[in-house]
Amino acid sequence: MNWQQDEPKVIDEEMLKQAIEEQGPQGQAGDISKKEGIQYEDVLQLRLDYRNILKIFHLWHFTSLTKLQLDNNVIERIEGLENLTNLVWLDLSFNNIQVIEGLEALVKLQDLSLFNNRISVIENLDTLQNLHILSFGNNAIAQLENVLYLRKFKHLRTLNLAGNPICEEESYKTFVTAYLPDLVYLDYRLLDEQTRETANTKYKYAVEAMQQNELQEQQAMEAQKISNEELQLHKDAFVEFLNGPQLFDSMFDEDPDGEKLALLPGMEALLESYPCKMEALCVQIFDAGLTQHAQRTAEVESFFTCSHEAVADNRQKAAQIAADFESSRRQKIVEMQQITDVELLEDNISSCQEQASQLSETLMSLELQLVDQLEDIFKDFERNISDMVGGFIEYVQGIFAQCRDLENQHHEQQLEIALATLEKVVKNELEEEIPDDMAMLLVDKDTVTNAVSASHDTHLLKIDNREDELLTRINSWMSGLLKSIHDEEVKRNRKRVSEIRNYVSYVKDELEDMRMSEHH
């Protein structure tokens, strides 16, 4: 073919625009589409086959794409697809790909073809759990055990490995059938019962042993998943690691003076009650955090529900008005095409243009109503979410103040014990043996006081830092949410205004063309 003689290419803007125009709507819809410009994020299917493409590039805006054809090119590496998270169907057949990579984000993918490449190992597909159809035919896969990797794909029903070195092994078909029992089609053929029975007989015990291992791994993974989801919930509520002794432990983790002071006679009893009291305060923050998170989530969901309903209702009204106008306009166009009187035609054209202007005013007025309505909804939401966050912050600050009070009490008691111990050492009245580390502290009053103060400062810093972290993150979350809502509304409004203007402009241009053709 001639394309093979061309210079290898990188996907660029020109290629994309050409491909979209070739595949895009024709006629009136095509004209409007060209006037509005190509919106990459709205494209659902894209054909880039037979274009001598060497490097995948410039596809990051195609976030709605569900089907992508990149077959029959000279692609050497799978890359640049990470934003195409809605992709369901991907064809990379007849290229020069050696390694499977760059597909991790395509979690909705159901049909993947890498037919006729240079792949030697099936790998890096772990996240593609929705795969139904998989083609690795005509590659360089030589290890039969590599097929075991595909056991994790529970929805896989069609597999093509024909044309690989593994197909030459005598046990190929029974091995694949035994270890992939849910397969329906292998190498273009339906797997019959006889093949399944033979495979089951030959590999029964090996498969059962593997299933047992997989079950244990699955249980461990599920337990880890639950743990991760729980932690993520705690992070979303800004109270992770406050449901136990973690804050208290962190206060002493980087406190060398505290470790020495803990060995003082009388400190054991003091350190028994302190961590329990600190943990109880932390749990109060934790419980309140989860409760507040649930309330904030409900408020956010309620806001988006109200907003979407308002937009949908407004769009429905606008769509009905536009549909009625379009129906009337088309009928009027047919009637005007029969008019031979120039003045009468001119009057009709002017009347239609006036109606188009009135349509524009009506639709713009509807859009303005929606903007005002959404602004009111947003203001209510902003007030509610601000009150929620403010109330939670006030509560949290009160609890952290109690944490500091608790630490201050501990500090005073610790200092009292340390100075009393020093006095006994000076008078040689201390009955207990003291370690060398502690003896270095019990030199004089300044040394003891400095050590106790350093330990106290370390503890307060940990408490302050955790409080600051919580407040900073929740405020950042709120401001980020409000900004994103505002930005999305501005974007929606601009797009809607552009749609109205482009449609009315198209209608008026068509009428103007009719007027010009009549004059000629």
TrEMBL record:
Organism ancestry: Eukaryota, Metazoa, Chordata, Craniata, Vertebrata
A Pfam family reported for this protein in Swiss-Prot or TrEMBL: LRR_9
Record's keyword terms, sorted: Cell projection, Cilium, Coiled coil, Cytoplasm, Cytoskeleton, Flagellum, Leucine-rich repeat, Repeat
GO cellular component terms listed in the entry, alphabetical order: cilium
Recorded coiled-coil stretches: 342-369, 403-432
SMART domains: LRR_SD22
Subcellular location: Cytoplasm, Cytoskeleton, Flagellum axoneme
Chief place where the protein resides: cytoplasm
Family named by the database record: Belongs to the DRC3 family.
Name of this chain's protein: Dynein regulatory complex subunit 3
